Amino acid sequence: MDYSQLLNFILKYTNMLANRWKVSKMITPSKDFLPTIRKGDTEMYQTIAARFYSFIDSLSFSQEEKEIINVLKLEHTLRVVELSEILAKSVFDENDSEGMNTAKIIGVLHDIGRWQQMHNRSLSDTDSDHGEMGVALIIENNILDGIPENTQHIILTAIREHNKKYSDEFDGMTQMFVDIIRDADKIDNFFVEVKDYANNPLEKSMQKVLPFSDEHRLSHDIYDCIMNNRLADSSARKTKIDFKFFKMAWCYDIKLAKSMEIIREKQYIHDIFNDIQNPDKAMIQAYEKICAYLMPTSL
Ligand SMILES: [Fe+2]
Fold first, then answer.
1. Cβ(194)–Cβ(271) under 8 Å?
2. CB 231 within 8 Å of CB 225
3. What's the pLDDT at 291?
């Protein structure tokens, strides 16, 4: 074997190892997932998390899909668990480990229906609502076995409601968990929007599902809702700019003071807006309206 053959062999071998590492990271979500079980996590949370992993591992996906799923849902889920814990700490007594535990269980399971949707090759909630689907899967797979019935009811309600139009018809405790998961989910969606948006696999996959136009304009319906402190209807989104403002307007749906504080501190709205080149007058007005709403006095 001469020098160039040896060099080729080394390069090929190194690439193979790198690919194998990359693929193994994608194939086995457990490696990404299990380390999040930390000292102090209750046995119940660990059991539920293991059942969740077992379920998602039982679904088969192609390599490309796994890469999207890792960014789209697994990382999102893990961040939502952390955010849920932070928000739960802000509303429950510091020593209320049960409250923290329930919030984290809801966090880890909240998008389980998305995995089934992806497995069915559809991310559309119009065809099959992923909140409802998640509740059905959790029941079908006995994921909450061992949890008291009233807590199971709270968990299932929060998961069912996390992607719906807001309702405040629940009892105090259930409402609190509904608010926590909805806020945690939105805060992480702001983060995803900001994080290398144009290049992440989520954006690419969403563009296939939701092909918005490149036109540089904010649709009047979305502008109008924002100026009246209202959420817009998703059907009003026509352009990529609409998509961004539709998401920024989620601030109007945030319920907890701690969530508002995180959104302000992380400057998510500022960063999403900053990504828009040459914003016109309507865009600037809409952005300023949302910023004004975010000011500490609005809650
Ligand atoms: Fe979701």
1. yes
2. yes
3. 95
Residue 106 Cα to ligand 1 middle (Å): 11
User: Does 143 lie in the same domain as 105?
Assistant: yes
The answer to the question of residue 205 being in a domain is no
CB 134 within 8 A of CB 109: yes
Q: Render pLDDT for 115-142 as a digit per residue (tens, 0 to 9).
A: 888 888 776 777 789 999 999 999 999 9
User: pLDDT tens digit string along 1-40?
Assistant: 444 444 444 334 444 434 433 333 333 344 444 445 566 6
In angstroms, what is the span from residue 114 Cα to ligand 1's centroid? 7
Ligand 1 centre distance from Cα of residue 17 (Å): 35
The verdict on 166 and 238 lying in the same domain is: no
What's the whole-number average pLDDT of the chain? 82
- Please tell me the distance from the alpha carbon of residue 96 to that of residue 99, in angstroms, as a whole number: 5
The answer on 131 and 46 residing in a single domain is yes
pLDDT category at 211 given cuts 50, 70, 90 is low
- Provide mean pLDDT across the span 175-182: 98
Full-model pTM: 0.82
Are 71 and 110 found together in one domain? yes
Q: State the total domains in the chain.
A: 2
What distance lies between CA 104 and its chain's CA centroid?
A: 14
Owning domain of residue 282:
212-299
How far apart, in whole angstroms, are the C-alpha atoms of residue 242 and residue 193? 13
* CATH code of the domain covering residue 165: 1.10.3210
Query: What is the Å distance from ligand 1's center to 258 Cα?
Result: 21
156 vs 130: CA distance, rounded Å:
12
pLDDT band at 197 (very low <50, low <70, confident <90, very high): low
The identity of residue 3, as a single letter, is Y
* C-alpha 16 to ligand 1 mean position (Å): 36
Residues 91 and 177 in one domain: yes
How far does the centroid of ligand 1 lie from the alpha carbon of residue 296, in Å?
27
CA of 163 to the centre of ligand 1 (A): 6
Q: How close is the Cα of 125 to the center of ligand 1, in Å?
A: 10
